[in-house]
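Q: Please design a sequence for this.
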């Protein structure tokens, strides 16, 4: 029997690094044999390496092809109950001829639209986790961090699993475009929980229209799920700042347990208003169905129909 390494995982950052190292090892193992690897295989192989900080709850799929392939991640602070949700779709970087590609427009964009629709249903942002390959695949690619020794580059290592919001890829017109955007603007997954890489002050274009508490959120250091949400929001906000300014209105929102209400409706060039798309994922507590699931209950039908599974990410000290 293999020794169980999980008792040595103590922090969330460590857990995410372990997940990434596990993914790199699997990608390299298959690449060195000339075997094609698929994103779902890497997901199934590597995410469980983050236990007990990451708790992976895969759903058994009763009707093949009917259920969604996306995962819902909840970053949960057990001391406050606060949480941040993301709808996750995994993708991989491919080397096709001389080009690097990531296909997010599968079936003429149908898959992209379905991801956004599902994210809207759960009121959480749509996020891609992109597997950029291990050392074998990287050896074929230029590195922007240390041109002398790309395979040994620590920054490339950290980026082996990168995350980027679907909104940041809304304007890419080809798989090569999407790959360039992800390689340029994707954030290493583990950086979301790295205390040495805080989101910092987010200077948003709509800052003057915000409530006091929202301005405080964007300008002051945050912790836990709020900090993760701020990093995701910051990336989208930076992209918005490159586009033209418009007059915005504030949306009246109904209360479903979200932390921030009445957000700007500014859409920029994105598929929808970016404030609610990202920040509605920040909740005061886990929605009831997900809490029951975390406590060991059966997944409700509405989740089974739409998700491949759920990952609970414990922030702070793991509870078990
Ligand atoms: Zn590099």
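A: Design:
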């Amino acid at each position: 029997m293999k020794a169980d390494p999980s008792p040595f995982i103590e922090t969330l950052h460590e857990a995410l690094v372990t997940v990434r190292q596990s993914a790199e090892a699997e990608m390299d193992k298959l690449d060195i044999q000339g075997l094609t690897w698929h994103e779902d295989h890497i997901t199934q192989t590597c995410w469980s390496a983050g236990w007990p900080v990451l708790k992976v709850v895969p759903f058994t799929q009763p009707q093949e092809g009917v259920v969604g392939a996306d995962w819902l991640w909840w970053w949960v602070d057990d001391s406050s109950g606060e949480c941040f949700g993301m709808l996750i779709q995994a993708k991989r970087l491919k080397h096709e001829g001389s080009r690097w590609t990531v296909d997010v427009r599968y079936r003429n964009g149908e898959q992209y639209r379905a991801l956004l629709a599902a994210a809207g249903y759960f009121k959480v942002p749509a996020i891609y986790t992109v597997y950029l390959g291990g050392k074998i695949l990287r050896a074929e690619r230029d590195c922007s961090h240390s041109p002398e020794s790309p395979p040994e580059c620590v920054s490339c290592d950290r980026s082996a699993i990168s995350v980027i919001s679907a909104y940041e890829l809304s304007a890419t017109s080809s798989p090569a475009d999407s790959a360039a955007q992800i390689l340029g603007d994707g954030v290493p997954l583990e950086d979301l929980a790295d205390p040495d890489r805080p989101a910092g002050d987010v200077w948003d274009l709509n800052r003057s229209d915000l409530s006091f508490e929202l301005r405080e959120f964007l300008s002051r250091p945050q912790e836990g799920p709020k900090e993760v949400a701020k990093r995701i929001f910051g990336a989208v906000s930076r992209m918005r700042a490159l586009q033209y300014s418009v007059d915005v209105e504030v949306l009246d929102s109904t209360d479903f347990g979200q932390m921030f209400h009445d957000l700007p409706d500014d859409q920029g060039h994105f598929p929808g208003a970016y404030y609610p798309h990202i920040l509605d994922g920040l909740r005061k507590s886990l929605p009831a169905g997900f809490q029951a699931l975390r406590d060991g209950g059966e997944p409700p039908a509405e989740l089974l129909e739409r998700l491949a599974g759920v990952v609970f990410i414990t922030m702070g000290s793991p509870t078990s």
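Q: Thanks. Anything notable?
A: Residues 6-195+285-315 form one domain. Residues 143, 145-146, 150, 153, 155-156 surround zinc ion (CB under 6 Å).
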